[in-house]
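Write out this protein's structure.
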Amino acid sequence: MKAQSRTLLEVEGLNIRYPTPRGAVEAVRNVSFTLGREKLGIVGESGSGKTQTGRAILRLTETHARVRADKLHFDGIDLLAANEQTMRRIRGRRISMIMQDPKYSLNPVMSVGEQIAEVFRVHSGAPARKARRRAVEMLDSVRIRDPERVYRAYPHEVSGGMGQRIMIAMMMTPNPDIIIADEPTSALDVTVQLQVLALLDDMVSDNGMGLIFISHDLELVASFCDRVVVMYAGQVVEVVDAGALHQARHPYTRGLLNCLPRIGTHGRDLPVLQRRSSWAAGISPRNRHA
């Protein structure tokens, strides 16, 4: 595991509740972790609270959600107490979020280059010509061939892999301190997935950023991240070094690992995860060993 420098983000006792006609739904319960200049993976099955946790950091949860935390601090700023003007300065400029599918994140009636340039203008106040130059440079930095041509392209004219590179370029343009990547490779084939991960790794390392990598792919996170937070039913059940993920001790993490298909097991049924009510208690002191 890479040594952390100073702590960029502190999350303690984060809770997110959604009121419904049938009662409150606890989407996130008592989640705590810290982030330095490192790659932190958050894993768990669908509905475990991974995305809700990431969105809460930027206060992007739905308006009817009730969010509270003992501490939600970024670089000394209380994110829950900050006014909207402060949050606008933080979003994108200091903390950026890469969404899962670029088709739903890019504006279909603007060229991709104009969208990248707009991000730079908003956060830097740069004139249009400088913003355009910066956008082309960022497209080139994510290894897109012929960035001038792609600058003029519209989202429907690019492939899924290129769209994800464009999103990375857009989010990296203001040179933020933290990137939150919400399953950025789940819609990509394996070859393109590896290229995007290598690109993210280079950009995060070269710029000394912190990365929160949200995924359901344990093997991917184990090979890419420095530490891993495992979530179940809205809670953290285990925190481990990524290199030691296969030696994880919590039965939920072990169950997820055992459910992964293996080469050489032809004709054998995959095991079914046997859930236990005790997992709802969240992390225990013996599991906080990262």
